[in-house]
């Protein structure tokens, strides 16, 4: 065998990180969004006008603060039935009462409720999905908004044993999206909206080391956060391919822009001070929720979804902070890695590899974290 033949027969070297050009382009996207998001989004009204949503039932995770709070409030005031899926139901009930009081005299009472959901517990996610599906009603919009970026903190793990960014930002929302498919299909046409981040552009996912514990990469909160956001896009892209057009269920990822949210509370005092000095560049939560509301309600989104599916586009639809279609990072187009992320994610959240296909056919799917059947 010739040296050339032997070389071509050897397995390809495993990619262990972004190339330096990918890394540079990624950070260029990040700083470009920080510096120019107000200019690129200057055509948008604030708040964003919404089309009629009276017939929509929407679940919004992480809706007691920041972008999620504004999203839930504006959808409810526009007439949608909104369920706040939150860890602190007491805080949610207090918000609901406050919003009802402020809305009094302006129309019918807001159709809004709260239910407990702790994304740091996959058992809580499975219980939430079972409780909602048991209503046997339609779900039109699932907004996976909740997320964490524990800036500067040491590596932490959930009660399920997974790195906290990966669990809250990717694993738990993925499990929720799959388990709620029966309700989403009943609500067809429906949408799964994933609030992502431009930070996915500097992320890298090793499906064999999603907890970042092997030592091949040094852990930092930036690594944890950006990796989880890239994993979310990759998983969503495979879900995008697996859902037939006939289901009427669209999957969209989006960037809200750089937003002044509770992420800042995790910063050091000096960084919080600096963060507060650049309000011109940073969106308020009301501005930051516009791409979420657009993705959840714009009537052209299903048509855009269908166009990409028919063109066999490798990644799911991605909406930028200016409410325009955008192309996510080069690494997000790595279909081989995306498939492995899909398979590893289903394994970690305790679902069979054919879970989506079974749910589409109306079959029952057992989750390892769900209630144990007797």
Tell me the number of strands. 8
Indicate the radius of gyration in whole angstroms. 20 Å
Strand order of the largest sheet: 3-2-1-4-5-6-7-8
Roughly how many Å apart are the termini?
60 Å
Low-pLDDT residue intervals, each spanning 5 or more residues:
1-10
From the helix content, strand content and strand pairing, which structural class follows?
Answer: alpha/beta
Overall residue-averaged pLDDT value: 92
Count of DSSP H/I helices: 14
Oligomer: single chain
Give the topology string: H per helix, E per strand.
HHEHEHEHEHHEHEHHHHEEHH
Helix content: 40-55%
Major sheet attributes: 8 strands, mixed
Proportion of residues in β-strands: 5-15%
Family: Belongs to the short-chain dehydrogenases/reductases (SDR) family.
Pfam family, one: adh_short
Protein name: Dehydrogenase/reductase SDR family member FEY
InterPro entries: NAD(P)-bd_dom_sf, SDR_fam
């Amino acid at each position: 065998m010739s040296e050339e033949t032997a070389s071509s027969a050897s397995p390809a070297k495993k990619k262990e990180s972004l190339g330096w050009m990918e890394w540079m382009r990624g950070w260029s996207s990040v700083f470009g969004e920080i510096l120019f998001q107000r200019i690129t989004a200057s055509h948008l009204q604030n708040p964003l006008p919404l089309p009629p949503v009276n017939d929509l039932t929407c679940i919004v995770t992480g809706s007691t603060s920041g972008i999620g709070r504004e999203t839930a409030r504006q959808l409810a005031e526009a007439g949608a039935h909104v369920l706040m899926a939150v860890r602190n139901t007491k805080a949610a009930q207090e918000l609901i009462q406050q919003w009802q009081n402020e809305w009094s005299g302006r129309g019918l009472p807001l159709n809004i409720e709260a239910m407990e959901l702790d994304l740091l517990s996959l058992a809580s996610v499975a219980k939430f999905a079972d409780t909602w599906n048991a209503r046997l009603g339609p779900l039109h919009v699932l907004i996976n908004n909740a997320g964490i970026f524990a800036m500067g903190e040491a590596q932490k793990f959930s009660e399920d044993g997974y790195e906290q960014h990966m669990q809250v930002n990717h694993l738990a929302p993925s499990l929720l999206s799959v388990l709620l498919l029966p309700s989403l299909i009943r609500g067809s046409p429906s949408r799964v909206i994933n609030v992502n981040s431009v930070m996915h552009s500097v992320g890298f996912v090793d499906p064999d080391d999603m907890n970042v514990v092997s030592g091949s990469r040094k852990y930092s909160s930036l690594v944890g956060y950006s990796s989880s956001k890239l994993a979310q896009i990759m998983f969503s892209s495979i879900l995008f391919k697996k859902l037939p057009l006939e289901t009427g269920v669209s999957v969209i990822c989006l960037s809200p822009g750089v937003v002044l949210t509770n992420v800042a509370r995790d910063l050091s005092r000096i960084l919080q001070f600096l963060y507060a000095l650049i309000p011109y560049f940073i969106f308020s939560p009301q501005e930051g929720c516009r791409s979420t509301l657009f993705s959840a309600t714009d009537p052209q989104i299903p048509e855009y979804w269908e166009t990409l599916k028919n063109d066999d586009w490798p990644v799911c639809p991605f909406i930028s902070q200016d409410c325009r279609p955008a192309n996510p990072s080069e690494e997000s187009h790595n279909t081989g890695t995306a498939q492995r992320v899909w398979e590893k994610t289903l394994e970690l959240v305790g679902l069979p590899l054919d879970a989506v296909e079974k749910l589409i056919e109306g079959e029952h799917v057992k989750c390892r974290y769900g209630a144990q059947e007797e």
